[in-house]
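Posting this for the archive.
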Amino acid sequence: MKMPVEKCLVDSYELKTNEDLGHGWFRLDIHAPDMAPMIRAGQFVQVRVDSGDTPLIRRPFSVYDVNPTPGPDASELSLLVQNVGPGTRVMSQLRSGDSIGLMGPLGHPMPRPDLDDGGVLFLVGGGIGVAPLYLYSRELAKEKSTLDHRVLLGARNRSLLIGLDAFEKLGTHTVAATDDGSQGYAGNVIDLLSTELDAITEQTPVAGIGCGPHGMNQALRDLAVERDLNFWISLENYMPCGFGACFGCVIATPEEHEFRYRRVCVEGPCFPVKELPALL
């Protein structure tokens, strides 16, 4: 079975730090000098933290960052994790020096839209979906890209805005949206995107990449299709195996599409909105 990557590693790696970010969020920094240089924004790793059966199945996580810089000099990778169940609870209890099992990198990198000078690229994130968008921004910063790219982050309230400070430290144009208006735009991030789009002239080339919870992804897909925008959405479906064998992450594409079903793990996780069904 052909993989979307040239090489996939399966090994145990040393945890360097586990930083508590508050409100159930934490960041794991992992020493992985053989894997980190291979990773590109949008790809993910499958995580196993215990040799027993708790948890039995590996969990997929988008890579949040690679350090000291993306590319061949990278020696560490970082995962952004929210403590929401048995698997992530075990991960939250890991300490420096502990071992963590990784399989990766998996999936295709996020695309680089072909935008002319004067075009705008929107990166729209919510919740754990900010992870691959941050690495994407890091890659653009390393390349000294002159592309006008704008990050829009959404959350229910200010305390749940994850990664905002990190984007701002990169110098990336970043705008927050909170449902309760406690920071930035008062409303959800898709309404913010709509407002931003309305402020751009019709002649301005626009593209975008989004990643977030199901409701956000659905609303983004609907908006992009309605406005005929060149957008992609990175899906975070449950992926038991991560390499296409179990078909546990399959999505149905629109009926007119050449391929009726797509495996998110090997044919994604990022898809053009026109290849996504009306109901995700």
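The helical segments are 86-92, 130-142, 164-170, 189-198, 214-226, 264-267. The domain at 120-234 is CATH 3.40.50.80 (Rossmann fold).
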